[in-house]
Amino acid sequence: MDPDAPIDVPPTLQQDLGSDLLSTYWPTAVGLLLVAAGVVLSVRILRARRTRSRARRTLFGGAAVTGTAVVLVLSLALGVNTWVGYFPSVATLSRWIDDKTREPVAELPAAAVTAEGASNVPLTEGERVTTDTNGYSFLTAVPSTAAQVPATGAWVYLPPGYDAPGNTRRYPVMYALHGAPGSAADWFAGGRIDYLLDTLIASGSVPPMIVVSPDLNAGSARVDDEPLDRPGGAQLETFVTRDVVSWADGALRTVADKKHRVIAGMSAGGLGSLLYGLHSPETFGGVLSIMPYTAPYTASVVADPQAKKRNSPLDVIAATANDAVDRSQIFFLGQGDRESAAEATAIRDALRGQGRTTTLRVLPGLEHNWVAARTIAPYGLIWTAMHLGWNTEQTE
Fold first, then answer.
1. Residues 82, 22 contacting (CB under 8 angstroms)
2. Do residues 46 and 114 share a domain?
3. Do residue 173 and residue 203 come from a single domain?
């Protein structure tokens, strides 16, 4: 099977997935028009002499200036959001707010328990959380045994039909790592992974699968550090590869083997997914790395020569050149053409030099942002499912 063969992505996913005004520059344009009007109004109020006293002019003028400044800031923020693509719709903004304001709870929705779990009572349609055509996403909590990583939130996607009465099917899992700074909601807000999968599953491009996206900040604050095992600090790779995977296999109807696990990520998460896969080929059968790079930047890792080498993909690949590693693991690398592909190309060539099934897809017109991540992801999902043989099997 040619790893560079064309990938047949549904037409609706071959473009940016913005779905309402937040994905356009119209709110920014309207806001800037309001700013211009506010500036004119402020000037007129402050210059008025006959109709208002000095105190009233100062009061109303100050209010107009403040309001204009607020609208300007909001307009610029909306413009930046449109460029980055983080909130393509009001619904994704709502999900991000939920992630910041809701406390994750360990309990899953009643209909989401495993077939061997606490709920073996037949479900009615009113109790279901998925439908035959739409999956269900929710925020839950994952316990941790990793050093300096507390129990933390994770967003989970269950595929359409997961909780249909009598369904005992088990599903492949994609573990999705956010960028830095970022949070567990990112793949469900900026990445729109639930919409992507509903669409891909409906078209038959990929089989139904589960997604688990854990928070990788090792605390409540967003930090600009990569999701790595840090010397003397949080052991985030250990948390994902040991705790998150074991939690999912116990709480959800997963196919608990490496062939049916994919580790994915974007930017800092793209580096993380590549390293997790290289370090744990017995756990993950596939790697989907979007916007990968070759050298970590997290200060505690860079300061430690051994940690830096362990978390530099080219060094890790080179170290396994003579090892009897399992060459069945597959690697999808993707990015946009508005940033250099030199590092991704070096990673691809190093993997291919060891006979590992690898492809690099560079899509036109994309930069280093969430627009690129959610545009590239369908290509990676289809390629990965095809090369792991998911499309030709039924897992009961």
1. yes
2. no
3. yes
Least confident of 123-132, 189-198, 363-372: 123-132
Digit-coded pLDDT (tens) for 48-59: 655 556 666 566
Whether residue 18 is contained in a domain is answered as no
Minimum mean pLDDT among 123-127, 209-213, 234-238: which range? 123-127
Same domain for 212 and 149 = yes
Tokens of 58: 């100062």
- The string of DSSP codes covering 105-127 is -SPPPGGGS-TTSS--SPPPGGG
Q: Which two tokens stand for residue 295?
A: 């050298």
Report whether 122 contacts 154 (CB < 8 A): no
Burial class (CB in 10 A: 0-12, 13-18, 19+), 226: buried
Domain residue limits at 267: 87-392
pLDDT computed for residue 304 by the predictor: 97
Strand 152-158 with 136-142, pairing: antiparallel
**Beta bridge partners of residue 254, listed in sequence order:** 171
**One domain for residues 114 and 39:** no
Nearest 5°: the CA angle 286, 290, 292 is 100
Residues 133, 49 share a domain = no
In the chain, what is the straight-line distance between the N-terminal and C-terminal CA atoms, in Å?
A: 27
Give the CB-side neighbour count of residue 392, counting CA atoms within 13 A.
Answer: 5
- pLDDT reading at 133 higher than 80: yes
Residue 355 located in a structural domain: yes
Global pTM value: 0.81
* pLDDT at residue 337, as a whole number: 95
Is residue 8 within 8 A of residue 205, CB to CB? The reply is: yes
- Indicate whether 156 and 215 sit together in one domain: yes
The C-alpha atoms of residue 203 and residue 256 are separated, in whole angstroms, by 26
Q: Looking at the 3D structure of the chain, how many domains does it have? A: 2
CB of 264 closer than 8 Å to CB of 240: no
Residue 19 lies in a domain: no
Annotate 166-188 with DSSP letters as a single string.
T----B-EEEEE--SS--TTHHH
- The percent of the chain in helix, strand and coil, each rounded to the nearest 5, is 45, 15, 45
Same-domain status, 182 and 262: yes
The CATH number linked to 201 is: 3.40.50.1820
Quote the mean pLDDT of the chain: 84
Task: Establish if 13 belongs to a structural domain.
Answer: no
